[in-house]
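Something for you to look into today, if you have time. Could you write out one complete protein record for me, on any chain you like? Leave the record below and I will have a look.
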Amino acid sequence: MTSKFPCQWVIRPLCVSSENVKPPAHRWRNPYRTFSASLCRSKSQQKPRRISEDSYAYHHSRQRRAANVVRKTELKEQRAAALGDPIRGVTTPFVESLGSLLPSEATTDDEGLANATTTSSPKEPPPSPAYAPDEDHLNYYITKPEFEESLDYSRVLSAPLVTADRERADPVKEAEEAKAHEAEHQTAYEAISRIVSLANANNKERTRANVQRIIDTFGRHNTESYLRPKAPSLQSTYSTAAKQEPTPRAGPDTGSSEVQIGILTAKIRVLADRYEGANRNDKVNKRNLRLLLHRRQKLLKYMYKKERGSERWTNMIEKLGLTEATWKGQIAVE
């Protein structure tokens, strides 16, 4: 006798004496139906989602949610402001002097001259060549002492000769010649000052001068005398291995992390000034700026790991105005 059920097995009722007794319907399962722990309910039997019966509690919860959203937005803005600008960081006197190529601390009685020598903006023209004597670094690899010494020597060489026979000498003529010589010397002094001034130099010469300034400021051949390195760890203190003596330095320090970070910061400022101006669609400049930013970020992460808390790290961060946004998180150039 074949079964009328599609399954291969049949569940018989407990009582087999009566042929009219049928098993309960809930004991049967469709073999092709997926397993379910409870019976399926139709949509009419499902309990509808209940809206809050208390209107006061409902509106109060909505107000608290809106207040939380506003507070989250404020905290996000505060954290972003605390991180700072990932490209420029914070403006410091040393960083401003990289743009104006003048001393970071100007001391003068003229208020207008002081403002002109300490402020720099990509939209403003470079300082006037009249301020060239106030510069610490000059063009063509000339130092300030060499510049002053050469001009003094040329002044002596070009001075008018004094007549040995004072009886035949004309004092009026000698005074006029001395006055004319002094005027010529002042004209030559101003002309040579304009020639060697970095205010009249191209961008390549300015970058070269900034690199030299950064090497002199952050190079360990100068900072080792007054900046203490990070304290050694306990593992290196109690280590039994023989300590290697440091290799003597053979010249100016140009490869330490702080020097490379300073050089990259100067180059980044130049590219950022150009990118934020009229050349907003310069894709090549944007790519170069992004590469320099990520290279500086890697060096900052390395130095943060090695020199965090040391005087070298503090000195570099304070002078260059670098914030946490320059080495933490993702840097995007928009």
